[in-house]
Amino acid sequence: MKFLLVFDFDHTIIDENSDTWIVKCAPERKLPNGLRNSYQPGQWTEYMGRVFVYLGDNGVKEDEMKRTMTTIPFTAGMIDLLGFIGENKELFDCIIVSDSNTVFIDWILKAADFHTVFDEVFTNPAAFSSTGYLTVQHFHAHHCAKCPKNLCKRKVLKEFLDKQLERGVSYTQIVYIGDGGNDLCPVMFLKKSDVVMPRQGYTLEKKISQLAQSLSPVQCSVLVWSSAIDIMSYLKLLIKE
Asked: Quick one: which residues bind Mg(2+) (predicted)?
């Protein structure tokens, strides 16, 4: 009996967007208008690439970025929840599927000593170049019209589950915890026996309730959370059963 917990990162594990938080490193803690307005829908990774070039051009170094990123607050109750999962790892496999990047997530989880809670992190690969600039790449290529071109979370989840099955691992239930519009695609893939936990007041919750109103609800159960303590209460019930 094993459960799979799938977490988004920004606005789910941390209470901010890691990509917009990095702007605190910029001169006067803001970006020039031309750069800010250069974002095009579905091309966030490219936009962040330009932001990282701007930071590098302005002499922002890796250690300063790291210091800034590790001040991001976790969402309410999240530290308790991750501690609880860490104590019950024999029951829970735990992955992150995020549109952030490997460098940011690694810094944040390691600084809080939570990196061992997660079995795998699926996010855009990032690294510092020889000149000290942070560079970020697309996670993968996919053919899903609903998702940003760098990441389809449904594809990630499906491939992970297939790989686990090959290893002889199947899950009693998948619990998907997220907040954003790009979390809807993998949620549509979940079965009746699974659970989605959308964060209250965020895009994912709104999209799920719009689907219910148009009489095409998601198959899985829906449990809304506002504090990660709500998630922990549900997981405690799960393992009691």
From this structure: 8, 10, 179
